[in-house]
Amino acid sequence: MAGGHIRKRGDKWCFVVDLGYDENNKRKQKWYSGFKTKKEAQGKLTEILQTINTGQFVENTNATLNDFLFRWLNDYVSINVSHNTFESYKYVICNHLIPAFGKTKVINLKATTIQRFYSDTVKNTNLSTTTVLYIHKVLKQALNHAVKWRLIHFNPCASVDPPRKSKQEANYLQEDELFTLLDHCCGKPIHIPVFLATTTGMRRGEILGLRWKDIALDEGMIYVSNNLQLVNKGLELTSTKTDKSKRPIKMNETTIVYLKRHRIMQAKNKLMLGEEYNDMDFVCCWDHGVPFRPDYITQTFGRIIEKIKITKISFHDLRHTHATLLLKEGIHPKIVSERLGHSKVSITLDTYSHVIPDMQTEAAEKIEERLFKNVT
């Protein structure tokens, strides 16, 4: 239970409240002063202690969303998430939350205000419901810390209904389109990244972060463990986002053959360039050894798609193509989920629900064949 005591200073009464200890194990106290009588001070002390003991006490009633969100961004987010996630949160805060709520005191932010903001954003802007849901996620996480830091005693986002996410099927290529794409990429620098995305389902950053030491060609295995990303306009090799993302992937024979040829070509470049070769062990790199930038892959792939006139997809959609082909071939969703590095098989099933009708048809046919093939 919190405690406090009253004292007189000059002709006024004041009191101090004990707030426990901070993260450095130092005692925290808060003073209240300016009371004309001891009885008045005692009444206010009792009121404050009640709010503390019932979990409704707030330490700073003047903090605005602008001040708090940047404090949260710098003091918590910057040291607990990846650089890309930090930049994503920062963008949401600067471009959406601050313009909407920046001048509002944290303690005055109401669920109805947030609800109206979501509604107006969906109706009056071209932002998708997915983006609005992401804004909601950031704000809710931030205000959870406002509760922990005793700026508010309740998170208003808990009483808000964010917009429902519109169902979007994964975009993918048909087999004939895929062969057209692979033929067009053959001999180009982007060929190996495209081929790996198609045959393994790896993410762009995982492919670019792949090193030869992560590949066991004799075993036909790739061991995904890293992600190459842009950080402050430079490249940084980081660990994959989750434990599930760290995974082994079995390669098909054609991928093994292509990688063996690719490694021989790299060895020739290394021998030819000598000390000028940047031996960083990357699989996907320029002739002098420097790895491809993620934006190079995205932009180059986009230009190729426009040129060959097939279904307009992004590089990431090659991952969807890989998963869709496997599911259509009857590969168990659990195996597909493991190849993709999904945390739960339900994510795989939800993402690739467009394949389910074909699987249902196949299931019905197999039951017919199994049970009634001899029935006349």
The CATH topology of the largest domain is given as: hpI Integrase, Chain A
Could you spell the SSE succession in H and E letters?
EEEHHHHHHHHEEEEEHHHHHH
CATH H-level homologous superfamily name of the largest domain = Intergrase catalytic core
Q: State the low-pLDDT regions, or none.
A: none
What is the helix fraction of residues, given as a range? 40-55%
Q: Kindly state the mean pLDDT as a whole number? A: 88
Q: Helix/strand/pairing class, anyone? A: alpha+beta
Number of strands: 8
Rough shape? elongated
- Level-2 CATH architecture of the largest domain: Orthogonal Bundle
Distance between the termini: 81 Å
Q: What percent of residues are in strands?
A: 5-15%
The value of Rg in angstroms is 29 Å
- The helix count comes to 14
Q: What is the highest CATH level, the class of the largest domain?
A: Mainly Alpha
Work out the count of structural domains: 3
Q: Strand order, biggest sheet?
A: 1-2-3
Could you describe the largest sheet, including whether it forms a barrel?
Answer: 3 strands, antiparallel
